[in-house]
Amino acid sequence: MPRPVVKRTARAILLDGDLQNPELVLIKRTKPGRPPYWVTPGGGVEPTDPTVVDALHRELSEEIGGKAGNVVPAFVDTVSIALHDAVPGDGVLKDGVLKDGVLKDAVKVQHFFACRVESIDLSQRHGPEVDEPNGEYEVVRLPFTREGVTSVNVVPPSLRAYLAANIEGITALLADDLGPR
User: Fold this and answer.
1) Contacts by 143-152 with C-beta closer than 8 Å and gap 24+?
2) Residue % of the chain over a pLDDT of 70
3) Which of 4, 60, 97, 164 could lock onto 66 through a cystine, CB 3.0 to 4.6 A?
4) How would you label 128-146 residue by residue, b for 16+ Cβ within 10 Å and e otherwise?
C-alpha cells in the first residue's frame, strides 16, 4: 500500500553563469542554536499552485527575488516522516500532530529541478522567509563542482550525494542541445 504524501516541495538546483564553469545558488540557513546548513531555493507546494513547477517559480520569487529558465526535472527525494521528525513551522505539523491525523508511514516528496538563473534581485524578496524570518537566509553561490558541493552542509544529505555524483549530468540537462523545455 502506498504511504500517504503529507507534503510536497519544489526546489531548484539553480545554476548561474557559463555552463563550462557554473555556480550553484544556495541559501545558507542559520538558526539560533544550530550549525549552519545550505538548502536549494524552493519550498512547499501550496494548494493554490496549479503545478509543482508553478510552486517552484513562486518560491524562487519569494526567497531570492529570482526567475529561472530551462526548468528540467532532475531528482525526486522521498522522505519518511515520523511524528518525532516533524517540527512546528515545517508545514507538516498542525497543532502538534501530523496533518490529516497521519501519525506514521507518511512521506514528504521533494521535487528538485535543474534550472538556470534568468534574474535575481534580492530587494524583490517577499513572503514568510522575509516577513517573519526564523534565523538568517543568506543567498550564496558555490562553484558547481564536487569540491564546491561537498564543502558545505547541503541538506538533505541525499541531494548532496546526488549533486556530487552528477555534476556533469545536471549540467547536460541544461545544455542548449537538449531541445525545447
Assistant:
1) 143/21, 143/23, 143/24, 144/15, 144/22, 144/23, 144/24, 144/170, 144/171, 148/24, 149/24, 152/26, 152/28, 152/36, 152/37, 152/38
2) 87
3) 60
4) ebeeeeeeebebebbebbe
Mean pLDDT of 162-176: 96
Average pLDDT for residues 171-176, to the nearest whole number?
Answer: 93
Distance of CA 51 to the CA centre of its chain: 16
Q: Is the pTM of the predicted complex or chain greater than 0.85?
A: yes
pLDDT in tens, 24-66: 999 999 998 999 999 999 999 999 999 999 999 999 999 999 9
C-alpha cell, 31 = 538558526
CB atoms under 10 Å from CB of 20, counted, come to 6
Q: Please determine, for residue 99, whether its predicted confidence score (pLDDT) is greater than 80.
A: no
DSSP string, 21-57: S-EEEEEEEE-TTS--EEE-SEEEPPTT-SSHHHHHH
Architecture of domain 8-79+108-178 in this structure? Alpha-Beta Complex (3.90)
Which residues touch 101 (CB under 8 Å, ≥6 apart)? none
